[in-house]
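Retry 2 of 3 after timeout on previous attempt. Resubmitting structure tokens to design endpoint.
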């Protein structure tokens, strides 16, 4: 999907995202809890969208010592995230509009995570590589996303086709690339391969 197509897709979906994604984006709290965040952790979420995952991260952070940075390509989604942050009064959240494949924030993070976002990035390998560069030594890189639905029988191709129609590609070798970049990565598939969590620690 081109950059223009991404902006167009989320220009509409920004208005309905929060009302629909609860039904399909599973495992977010559980995955974030496995980042083993400290009260003073610095966290980067790539593809943060409207900020649906922010409270799962912030419940582990001290509001005056911990820091959450959310990055997204879509200005429309980030405007929704800004409203969420303002309404909640979170003082330790920074939002950045940018391209994950050109990520260069000039700092390192204790945890960098993708929550159902990598499968929508055309050059996902570069996005994953850039993300790993931003992880501090001893920090964690986490990838949560749709799996290939291996155990779903005849429903599997239907699910993959539906997601592909929404610009999500589930059959790329995300897990293999994650392990190549971060050899300590452990993989867990849930709900018959509906989603997976890949978690690695940077040496």
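Retry 2 succeeded. Sequence:
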């Amino acid at each position: 999907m081109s950059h223009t197509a991404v902006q167009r897709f989320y220009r509409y979906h920004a208005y309905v995202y929060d009302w629909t994604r609860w039904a399909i984006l599973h495992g977010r709290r559980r995955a974030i809890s496995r980042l083993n965040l400290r009260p003073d952790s610095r966290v980067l979420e790539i593809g943060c969208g409207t900020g649906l995952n922010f409270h799962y991260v912030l419940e582990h952070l001290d509001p005056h010592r911990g820091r959450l940075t959310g990055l997204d390509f879509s200005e429309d989604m980030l405007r929704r995230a800004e409203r969420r942050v303002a309404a909640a009064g979170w003082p330790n959240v920074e939002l950045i509009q940018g391209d994950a494949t050109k990520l260069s924030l000039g700092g390192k993070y204790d945890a960098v995570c993708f929550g159902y976002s990598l499968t929508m990035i055309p050059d996902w390998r570069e996005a994953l590589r850039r993300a790993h560069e931003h992880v501090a030594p001893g920090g964690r890189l986490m990838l949560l996303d749709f799996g290939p639905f291996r155990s779903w029988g005849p429903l599997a191709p239907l699910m993959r086709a539906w997601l592909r129609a929404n610009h999500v590609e589930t059959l790329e070798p995300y897990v293999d690339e994650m392990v190549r970049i971060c050899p300590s990565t452990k993989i867990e598939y849930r709900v018959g391969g509906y989603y997976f969590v890949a978690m690695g620690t940077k040496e």
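Attempt log closed. The beta strands are 42-46, 67-72, 93-97, 109-115, 135-146, 186-190, 195-201.
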